[in-house]
Design brief:
The complex is a heterodimer of chains A (about 160) and B (about 650).
Chain A (H helix, E strand, L loop, with lengths): L2 H30 E5 L1 H6 L8 E7 L5 E2 L4 E7 L4 E7 L11 E8 L6 E9 L7 H10 L16 E5 L1
Parallel strand pairs in A: 1-2, 5-7
Antiparallel strand pairs in A: 2-4, 2-6, 3-4, 4-5, 6-7, 7-8
Chain B lengths: L1 H29 L2 H30 L6 H6 L6 H6 L5 H22 L5 H25 L23 H30 L4 H33 L9 H26 L3 H23 L13 H25 L14 H33 L3 E3 L1 H18 L2 H4 L7 H25 L6 H15 L2 H7 L1 H15 L2 H26 L1 E7 L4 E4 L2 E12 L3 E12 L2 E13 L4 E5 L1 E5 L2 E10 L5 E8 L3 H18 L13 H11 L1
Antiparallel strand pairs in B: 2-10, 3-4, 4-5, 5-6, 6-7, 8-9, 9-10
The chains are: A alpha+beta (about 160), B alpha+beta (about 650).
């Protein structure tokens, strides 16, 4: 090979690595990105069972039930819609009725309930997940004043399985 | 009163920074030595002023002066003393002050150790450092002043966020900032070189120690942060691909690339333009990280009180510095002369491959981190990009690099011999394969694909020493001569080998812990037992305990192996009284390199507890490897030739002329 050909080969090699990376990123986005929904959105949107989504809202008062072992069921609400959720594992320290949560998982085809494999709640007494807070404020269901004075320093607590 | 003096010192620092920003640059243009000499003096004064101001804030924390709003919000008189010290940077204002302190600390170091630099270069570098200092001084004074007073002064503080009340807070932010901010020196050197329009191998020799130092601290800081998250948060994970983690990881990746490309530039005068670009990109990613973490666009452990003006302010700083540097680069880079040429298969070629893979990998992490933010801004759609994305993209892209690492050091500069390298390495590859298989067998198997990961880890570890082995030439010259040769090698060669070995250890730890680890979630009543990782844990009930500023319920577990009790482990749920905030304190037992990790869940109506127990085999390798990498960095730094500001090697020719004269 001449030097020019060699250089071309090297550039082609580098370009193809970048191309592979771009394709990989696009493929990974199509596979593993989870969209965020609130219960009211689900009525409009058609989310197929098995599609991973994030579901956010408030934990409905009186809805938390402990089942077998460490399985917990509760209802996520945003005032207009309600979605039953089941989760097996340890809930974050600040998981409480009436507080905001974000759960990640998919709808079960058979039972039509949402099976979460991770539940997020922030490690702070005044916490409301940002996505949930934005929407609930827009709907007027909840506002910043509700126990949320002063420094919102806090931590995200996750329970992932 | 002293608080106001601290505040005033910051204002004086701003004035000093403005002077150092402007006059030395003019001096460098005009060749005015007096104006240029302002740079080092001014930088030292700047450091003294900021250090004084930081000391004042620390003092306010230590004596619990709740008339200072910042102290009131983040401290409590009953808090243990160490957290009063570390609490200084456990909040937005204080952490920005620490950022600034470390920035001016590096400027002062350049001023002290940069005596061998050409006067104009030193003046320009320090001026660029002062530009950054000025921007952050404005930011602190205008939007994040830690010295604001409260009147009347409250009697008691609101306590520090319990998650931050940990030894980790004392170590993680300073180390991380030493890394993050340390790259500012590389940035300043790059911008100064562009201003002067001149760059050569000597430039790379001056930049490399700073890069190495920053990289070493960043490695330690990230590893420390990862371990802290692992034991404090109680979810048993060590890396979550959280945007905040990515924010620190991206400068690390780019910095690693910079470290390697500066090597090519120093030794071969090639890749000049690319190295300058990388230096700019690395610090830009540090600034981007600061923006992501401090502006409140993300919710995480690290985002303190959110105030939109701060976010916009940092975004402006980000835009000015990154934009300005790139404009300067586009304008001046064509003036830089290209350097030596080399064949694709050569040491330079291997380092280019390293740079290609690292920068592409950085780009994928950047994409995954920013895409949700950009999408939300543009369309309002909210998505989350999680671990699966990064594992698929970053993980796969890094694999070829891990395979290639041992090849680099055994290839010759300029024109290498791949076949020769293969011949030299096949024994090491065989050893790695054998080690991986034995390891897999001892651990009683798992998915077959895991063998590949284990072998990759061992390949990195064993292959790291190939270069040393052949340089000492043990096979030909025997042990004693070989050892003599080995001790004669420059320390940077050892540094490289050690750091590459550490990388292998981390890779091994990642694959071993994910493949062979187990997780058990059970409901346990008092007296119940569960078997995990060859150990048996017996739950012995909850006990109440009281700490200085919290109350807790401690669950006691007796750990036994083969019927013999070997250890006790306590895992607790705490309630911090001032903030009424509960936390989970995991119980962790270390056996060799493996750990048993016990986390308490909720109490059941039946009287039992939900308990989550992980067996994490070889998990300590992950952070241990990072520590080894850090050690490698220090060994390399101690190399005489790399010593900060060490003169170029002119010793030999002088000796030669002396001999000729005799």
């Amino acid at each position: 090979m001449t030097r020019k050909q060699k250089r071309l080969a090297v550039i082609a090699g580098g370009m193809s690595f970048i191309l592979v990376a771009v394709l990989l990123v696009m493929f990974a986005f199509s596979q593993s990105v989870a969209y965020f929904f609130m219960p009211a959105d689900l009525a409009k949107a058609d989310v197929k069972p098995g599609t991973r989504i994030r579901l956010g809202g408030l934990v409905a008062e009186g809805s938390v039930k402990r089942g077998q072992g460490s399985t917990v069921s509760f209802t996520v609400t945003d005032g207009t819609g309600n979605v039953p959720v089941t989760y097996t594992g340890i809930l974050p320290d600040l998981f409480r009725e009436g507080q905001g949560v974000v759960t990640e998982g998919a709808f079960d085809a058979a039972s039509h309930s949402f099976v979460a494999d991770s539940v997020l709640a922030k490690h702070d007494e005044n916490y409301m997940p940002k996505e949930v807070a934005d929407r609930l404020k827009a709907q007027g269901v909840w506002n910043e004043g509700q126990g949320n004075q002063g420094q919102g320093s806090g931590t995200k607590g996750t329970a992932t399985r | 009163m002293i608080i106001e003096i601290g505040h005033y010192a910051l204002v004086l620092a701003l004035a000093t920074a403005l002077i150092v920003s402007v006059l030395p640059v003019i001096g460098a243009r005009r060749g005015d030595a007096a104006m240029m000499a302002l740079a080092p003096t001014g930088s030292l004064v700047l450091f003294a002023l900021v250090a004084f101001s930081f000391g004042v804030l620390t003092w306010a924390y230590v004596v619990s002066d709740f008339s200072v709003a910042n102290v009131w919000e983040n401290s409590h008189s009953l808090m243990p003393l160490i957290y009063k010290y570390s609490g200084v940077w456990g909040n937005h204002e204080g952490s920005m002050l620490l950022w600034l302190l470390i920035l001016v600390f590096f400027s002062a170091l350049v001023a002290v150790f940069g005596r061998n630099l050409p006067d104009t270069l030193r003046a320009n570098v320090l001026a660029v450092q002062a530009w950054i200092s000025t921007a952050f001084l404005f930011f602190i004074l205008l939007t994040s002043n830690p010295f604001l007073r409260l009147d009347p002064a409250p009697a008691e503080g609101q306590d520090l966020n319990p998650v931050l009340q940990d030894f980790g807070l004392a170590v993680h932010p300073p180390l991380l900032y030493l890394g993050y901010v340390g790259f500012s020196v590389c940035f300043s050197f790059a911008v100064a070189a562009l201003i002067e329009g001149r760059i050569d191998a000597a430039w790379a020799r001056w930049v490399r120690p700073w890069t190495l130092a920053a990289w070493t601290f960043l490695t330690a800081g990230i590893a420390m942060g990862s371990y802290w998250a692992y034991y404090e948060l109680g979810w048993g994970g060590w890396w979550f691909w959280d945007p905040v983690e990515n924010a620190s990881f991206m400068p690390w990746l780019a910095g690693t690339a910079l470290l390697h490309s500066a090597l090519v530039m120093e030794k071969r005068e090639a890749l000049k333009i690319w190295t300058v670009l990388l230096a700019i990109m690395t610090f830009s990613l540090s600034l981007l990280g600061t923006f992501l973490v401090r502006s409140g666009v993300l919710t995480s452990v690290h985002s303190f009180a959110t105030d939109p003006t701060r976010g916009i302010f940092i975004l402006c700083i980000l835009g000015i510095f990154i934009g300005g540097a790139f404009v300067l680069f586009a304008w001046r880079a064509p003036m830089l002369k290209a350097g030596g040429i080399f064949a694709p298969i050569s040491r330079e070629g291997a380092l280019v491959l390293n740079n290609l893979i690292l920068t592409v990998a950085t780009a994928t992490v950047l994409t995954g981190t920013l895409y949700p933010l950009i999408l939300e801004t543009l369309t309002g759609e909210k998505i989350s990009v999680g671990a699966p994305f990064f594992n698929m993209t970053f993980g796969l892209l890094m694999l070829p690099l891990l395979v290639a690492v041992p090849f680099g050091p055994v290839l010759a500069w300029k024109r290498g011999d791949l076949l020769g390298a293969l011949q030299r390495l096949y024994v090491f590859a065989g050893l790695a394969l054998a080690a991986g298989l034995i390891f897999f067998y001892i651990q009683n198997g798992g998915p077959v694909l895991a063998i590949f990961g284990l072998v990759l880890g061992f390949w990195g570890m064993i292959g790291a020493f190939a270069d040393l082995w052949y340089r000492a030439n043990f096979a030909k010259v025997g042990l004693s001569v070989g050892l003599k040769r080995l001790t004669g090698l420059p320390r940077s060669v050892f540094g490289t080998a050690i750091a590459h070995f550490g990388l292998g250890v981390t890779v091994l730890g990642i694959f071993a812990a994910t493949t062979f680890g187990t997780e058990t979630v059970v409901e346990m009543k008092q007296g119940a037992s569960v078997d995990v990782g060859g150990y048996s844990l017996t739950y012995d009930g909850l006990r109440d305990a009281v700490g200085p500023n919290y109350t807790e319920q401690r669950g006691h577990f007796a750990v036994s192996r083969g019927g013999v009790q070997v250890a006790d482990v306590w895992s607790s749920k705490r309630l911090y009284t001032a903030r009424r905030m509960p936390t989970t304190e995991a119980g962790i037992l270390t056996f060799g390199l493996s750990q048993l990790y016990v986390s308490l869940g909720d109490a059941m109506d039946s009287g039992g507890m939900v308990v989550r127990i992980w067996w994490k085999p070889f998990i300590l390798c992950i952070w241990g490897g990072a520590l080894v990498m850090m050690f490698g960095g220090f060994v390399s730094l101690s190399d005489r030739r790399l010593r900060v500001g060490a003169p170029s090697r002119k010793v030999k020719p002088i000796k030669a002329t002396l001999e000729a004269a005799e």
